[in-house]
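Example (one chain per record):
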Amino acid sequence: MRSANSRRDPIELEIFKNIYHSIAEEMGAALRRTAFSPNIKERRDYSCAVFDSDGEVIAMGDHMPVHLGSMPMSVRAAIDQFDLEPGDIAMLNDPFRGGTHLPDITLVAPVYVSSGRARPRAKSTVPDFYVASRAHHADVGGAYPGSMGLCREIYQEGFRIPPVKIMRAGKMQSDVLALLLSNVRTPQEREGDLSAQIAACHTGADRLRDVCDRYGLDRTKKAAVELLDYSEEMMRAFLNQVPSGTYHAEDFLDNDGISTKPVKIAVSLQFGKHLRSRSSGRAVVVDFTSSDPQVEGSVNAVEAITYSACFYVFRCLLAEDVPATAGLMGPIEVIAPKRTVVNARPPAAVAGGNVETSQRIVDVLLRALALAVPDRIPAAASGTMNNLTIGGIDPRTSEPFAYYETIAGGMGARPSKSGVSGVHTHMTNSLNTPAEALEYAYPLRVRQYSLRPDSGGKGKYSGGDGIIREIEALSDAEVTLLADRRERGPYGLAGGKEGTPGEAAIIRKDGTSQALPGKFNIRLRKGERIRIETPGGGGWGGDSLLF
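Predicted structure:
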């Protein structure tokens, strides 16, 4: 605990909780409005957050859980690399230094607050806050358009960026920018999206200075410390109510895209008196030691992803009004041994770890928690982001294009109601690309977009249905799918049935269909179509009258 202040003002705490949250939300709004790519401005595949002077997260926007829980490690990597001075902005995407996968580029900016706008702080002073923006760029180079292919090592996946300064003293570093833009297929779009991220950081910094002008720097920073403490107190209070014991669960990814062998993710949750002695002060230990070693394909998750999944799951167990700060993880120890599929090390390929393995980690955590607090836990959701990338040369411009989409599925049924159909769940919180925007931006045509009837698992409460999305190529293109839950459906709970597994197929010009696995790369000719059918969620409860 950072302070033992028994005189905390609950009204002031609530005010500052909403102030900090609104800053992160406004950062996101600025990023969305000024972005170039449909993936960011339409699908909202971005996240923004506010950090204190120690790099501890004090507020997150209502953005992407997989981004937000892992972003503090990127901020820490930037802080450790540089003394960030006024006007500096650091950029990175290295998954082994706080990143997630290469398309997610993070910008970190220091915020210096002075007693008056006319008197800037000395350059040697530690920043009062940090702000960060992260966005999924639709292409960052590599072997496949969209940078989400079936690679065997990270060097094939795209352009890897350690912490570097993209801005110094308010000036763009043109050489750094040129190096990046020379290694991607869509440089104009990338430059526009990076500029939008910079604008988001400037927005966050300006709003923090406005708040400090109004309330004073000391009062504003004191509130940040109290928010961290309050979050930790709320998490401890919940965890102390969980029955003591050790709860085990495991689940599998279908395969790694290279071999056909399932990939195991296993967790042990130790609560209360069952904690090991070295975990003094912890309320729960989350141990992934029994998970498989890192694999040849691209479904390896780095440490930041596993931490992020744990942050998300335990945050969901609390009331909605508890602030999502670094304090939530104070009582939680995460054990993810190096060189396993939940803490991969170089040269592992990791593009799918961020989007697929993160979802399976959530499924495993929820399955274990269902043994401890069964009345709080839903059945498995679709468990895959169904990552579809299509790239080639746009005949309208004779320039490369790269389309990226994650396709929603069914939500798992809950202990009191059915799951929602056709929705992104858990580690993703994006929207779809509207058909109109997709067809305007790319040489593609949406031929079908509908719910997938009866794909949700049956039970007292049914799982939500998945989605059918069929897209026609208007020019020759390369298609990559990185998806899961094709071999086994999302699990049900309390007697509920599994959701229907996903499917994929290529439909040729003559109408014939070729079924494909969940992970593939294929050449699509003009007039051919890719059809994705996503999994439904698992059912909850065994009321046989509803089967």
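Caption: The longest helix spans residues 187-215.
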